[in-house]
Structure prediction request, 259 residues.
Amino acid sequence: MPEPTTAIVRLAPEWEQSESRVFCDELEAISRQVPREAVIHAGRNLIFRHRVGAGEVAVKRFPVSGGRRLVYRLRTSKAVRAFDHASRLLALGIGTPRPLAAAEVRRGGALLASFYCSEFVPTFREARSLKVAGAPDRAELLGLLGEFVGRLHESGVLHRDLTSGNVLLVPYPGKPDAVAFRLVDINRMRFGRVSVRAGLANLAQLRLQDGGVLLSGYCRTRNLVASRVAPYYRFRLGLRSAVQALKERTRPLRRRFGL
Prediction:
């Protein structure tokens, strides 16, 4: 059986240097000995930070197993999609950590894993923190978040994994009391016109039931009447909660079969 090989598929211009290339070539080995303090998330996908040169980068490892390896002979890897999507988002003026590299580990053409490297964001809150009723500036931030998602959809961008953990609140550059929004986990996105119904269904993925502040912010950006779209939005919220509950119950079985 041939040995796995690592190929750098995407590389940002500022990473066109030997040190960065060596790091990318060694990603598989590095990912197998990440110190506990460097782990950001450990689950089906591993996210960790690592120092490269003078700064730290965030790395996400997407493993591929079973029948999915056949799929990725024809489909673009998650790491490459994340890199390309990040580039498109930044070109549209939408916040996301700066993409640095995408690498793939293959054996005989079969994809074993892919790695996405991006700018490391040291200070942030997840939007899920706004689920807590007493969160600081909750009402204001919910309204701003709604406006942000509205601008996203008006720009023709649909984040298909728009959970409250995939939107980061980071300090706004030069304005210590303000926040900016950054999208992460961006390998599943669709670019093109976003209809009102598709947008409301997407907004409901955040599952931030807040009494209407989020929806009002969204409607302000898209020039919608909140009272008219609220019934459909509430329906999508209920449906989303039911689907999420089913996913949680079936997660062990799905992971067992690599789904």
Summary: The CA atoms of residues 143 and 213 lie 5 Å apart. The chain has a mean pLDDT of 91. The first helix runs from residue 18 to 25.
